[in-house]
């Protein structure tokens, strides 16, 4: 089993997978529910909007724009709160930036040629 990590590279795990989609932090909880339902990953990556000035984005800038991953459990917990139950219309129209737990360390930018054994955790 350990030989798998020695002889395979990160790019092997991404073959046939679509580019990472971007879900804006300004979108509503309602839009997030639809996006999570359509996602094969069980969660959606939430991003700050790109600056209009930046044409090409480097790994550091991309890391800074990444907010975190929003999943169905986060949404259910938010909608089950007392204040959300009191005003359901307001809750469903809340921006996801108020729901997602910020954790930009969940995103790792790794060269596709990096061996699995050497990839950062």
UniProtKB/TrEMBL annotation:
Q: Which InterPro entries match?
A: CBS_dom_sf
The record's annotation in Gene3D superfamilies points to: CBS-domain
Which named protein is this?
Answer: CBS domain-containing protein CBSX6
């Amino acid at each position: 089993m350990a030989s798998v990590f020695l002889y395979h590279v990160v790019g092997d795990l991404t073959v046939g997978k679509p580019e990472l989609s971007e879900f804006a932090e300004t979108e509503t909880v309602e839009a997030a529910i639809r996006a999570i339902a359509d996602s094969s990953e069980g969660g959606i990556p939430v991003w700050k909007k790109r600056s209009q000035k930046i044409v090409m984005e480097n790994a550091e800038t991309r890391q800074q724009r990444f907010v975190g991953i929003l999943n169905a459990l986060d949404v259910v917990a938010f909608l089950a709160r007392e204040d959300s139950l009191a005003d359901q219309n307001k809750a469903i129209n809340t921006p996801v930036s108020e729901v997602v737990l910020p954790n930009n360390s969940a995103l790792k930018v790794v060269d596709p040629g990096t061996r699995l054994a050497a990839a950062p955790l």
